[in-house]
Amino acid sequence: MEFLRNLFGIQSFCSLFNTQKTLFEHIFLNVPTALSVTDENGVIQYVNNAFIELTGYASHELIGNNHSMLKSSKNEPDFFKYFWEKLLRDNSFSGNIWNQHKDAYHALHCITITSIALDKNYYLSTHVDVTEETELQERHHYLAYHDPHTGLANRSLFENRLSHAINNASRIGHNIGVLFCDLNEFKQINDEYGHATGDEVLKIVAQRLNSFFRSNDTVARFGGDEFVIIVEHLEDDTQLSRMAQSLAFKISEPMSELNLSVSACIGTASFPQDGLTKDQLLNIADAKMYDDKNRFYGLTS
């Protein structure tokens, strides 16, 4: 009788164990978060349904293969060196990684990896696709510092860079220049040709400014038809005025795609000759631009 009770107990325990095992397998497979389990060499041992959906691969295509099969070329060259150093040192990793879907598109995954020690070391990974969220955040950040119409820096980014350029120039001892550019008779273009054409004029002018200046200079649109430029590392005292003359000629070239042309008035200021602060340089360049504008309209005596 005692034997039967013991046998019944063992059978009950085995039944309970098998029930729990089935329950845990069901939870693992169907939890909405993408999960994968790899061995210490990165070979995939288990995946759940969410992971299969996330990557586009079937389970038999994943299990037995190294997790690096998902690796994307969009990761920084040294990323995986840093990744493995941190994982082996801390037995965990948390961060964003680019993976490549079976259909060849790249997705940014927020992953968390935890070490599990059983008969040997395993790693449980959770994956969340944050591509759209990250792109939206980057777009918001971009729009906070760029003009949405031309793609140029906006006033906020320009003033930050000008302050930074002044600090660098003060420390290193070189000159910088500011050009304040305003298009002539832009309102007439809008009135005669329409605002859509006016918008195209602004885009073409922005492209010409970008092609005229060096990549380490900053070209910004302050709004309307006003453009402002920071020129770093001026070579001599006459470079800025020569640059303004060449720029005015560049802007006035015919816009064949619109069958019209536009001219501009440009004022300049240089650091440290004309001013030592951001506001001083902008005010002087703006004032010189208006002097040029008055001459354009014949308002000077």
Could you walk me through the main structural features you see in this protein, from its secondary elements to its overall organization?
- It is built from 10 helices and 9 strands.
- By secondary structure, it is an alpha+beta fold.
- The chain folds into 2 domains: 33-134, 2-Layer Sandwich (Beta-Lactamase); 146-296, Alpha-Beta Plaits.
- The protein has a 5-stranded antiparallel sheet. The protein has a 4-stranded antiparallel sheet with strand order 7-8-6-9, sandwiched between helices.
- α7 crosses α8.
- The longest helix is centred in the first third of the chain and has 29 residues, at 2-30.
Question: What is the fold's blueprint, element by element?
Answer:
Layout: H1 2-30, E1 34-39, E2 44-47, H2 49-55, H3 59-62, H4 79-90, E3 92-100, E4 106-117, E5 121-129, H5 131-145, H6 155-172, E6 176-183, H7 186-193, H8 195-212, E7 218-223, E8 226-232, H9 239-251, E9 264-271, H10 278-296
Antiparallel strand pairs: 1-2, 1-5, 3-4, 4-5, 6-8, 6-9, 7-8
Helix pairs in contact: 7-8
The fourth-level CATH homologous superfamily of the largest domain is: Reverse transcriptase/Diguanylate cyclase domain
**Terminal Cα span:** 124 Å
Instruction: Work out the helix count.
Output: 10
Helix coverage percent: 40-55%
Number of domains: 2
Classify the secondary structure makeup into a structural class.
alpha+beta
Shape descriptor: elongated
CATH topology of the largest domain: Alpha-Beta Plaits
Profile the largest sheet: 5 strands, antiparallel
